[in-house]
Specification:
- The protein is of the alpha/beta class and 260 residues long.
- The protein has one domain: Rossmann fold.
- The chain contains nine helices and twelve strands.
- The protein has a six-stranded parallel beta sheet with strand order 2-1-3-4-5-10, with helices on both faces. The protein has a two-stranded parallel sheet with strand order 6-9. A two-stranded parallel ribbon has the order 7-12.
- It is globular and about 55 Å long.
- It starts with a strand and ends with a helix.
- The relative contact order is 0.15.
């Protein structure tokens, strides 16, 4: 399988997808190869490489043109060359609920980034009948993620809090990368949730990271996201039961993959 990975040169998740796909013919691309906002450039890129599948990890949280229009351009170009499209989406397509979200839950974003991801999903799923929108959560686990770097700085005295009321399903970057490569080569289609097995707060997640790294978990202070003027999504746990039935890759929970 020839697999093209957007964000595969410098992106955190993209680099892990490239590593997970070492058994395949991998084409890692980044913004230097084509600006995803430029439709013609994206079409030319995929026509040049003609992959069998695309894993689209590239996004810019503050730029809806990259996140939404960029995904639409990649999906369109993938369809033109007959490539399977796997979009990496997010739990922020939801606004928050007392119950976990499964794949049948309608998106209800409460942030601009969430709205951009909803648009990216819609374009992807409309592009071809075998396209996949893979929603995931916080991605970490190798020690190098922004989440882990933040926890270490807070544990060492930087001012700040971790939210006690924000609940999500963090996933190990290696598990997620392996699942995305598996999706690129199978026949699963539509929306699929790829969250980790454990639902935890930001504060609990931080304490797990601190404990693993030999830092004092008690040094981390909690706060409430709901008290912010614009809190965004607070409780966006993903029900990933379906993924466990259609994938061989196991998505571990944070309490397992961050164990000392």
């Amino acid at each position: 399988m020839r697999l093209l990975v957007t964000g595969g040169r410098t992106g955190y998740l993209g680099r892990h997808v490239v590593a997970a796909a070492e058994a395949h013919d991998v084409v890692a691309v980044g913004s230097a190869d084509a600006d995803v906002r430029d439709r013609a450039a994206v079409v030319a890129l995929l026509e040049r490489h003609r992959p069998d599948a695309v894993v689209h990890t590239a996004y810019v949280q503050s730029d809806p043109d990259v996140t939404a229009a960029g995904a639409a351009h990649v999906a369109e170009a993938a369809a033109r060359v007959g490539a399977r499209m796997v979009l990496v989406s997010s739990d922020v397509v939801f606004g928050g609920s007392d119950e976990p979200y499964d794949e049948s839950a309608p998106p209800d974003p409460v942030s601009a980034y969430g709205e951009a991801k909803v648009a990216a999903e819609a374009a992807t799923l409309a592009s071809a009948p075998d396209a996949v929108a893979a929603r995931t959560s916080l991605v970490l686990g190798d020690g190098e993620s922004k989440h882990e770097q933040l926890v270490r700085s807070l544990a060492r005295g930087r001012d700040g809090v971790l939210f006690e009321d924000e609940r999500r399903c963090p996933v190990h970057v290696g598990d997620l990368a392996a699942a995305l490569v598996e999706l690129a080569g199978n026949d699963v289609r539509g929306v699929l949730h790829l969250g980790g097995a454990d639902a935890v707060s930001r504060l609990e997640l931080g304490r797990l990271v601190a404990r693993r790294d030999g830092l004092d978990p008690a040094a981390l202070r909690g706060g409430l996201r709901a008290e912010l003027s614009d809190p965004g999504p607070v409780d966006v746990r993903l029900d990933s039961t379906l993924a466990a039935t259609v994938l061989t890759t196991r998505l571990r929970g944070a309490r397992e993959f961050l164990a000392p």
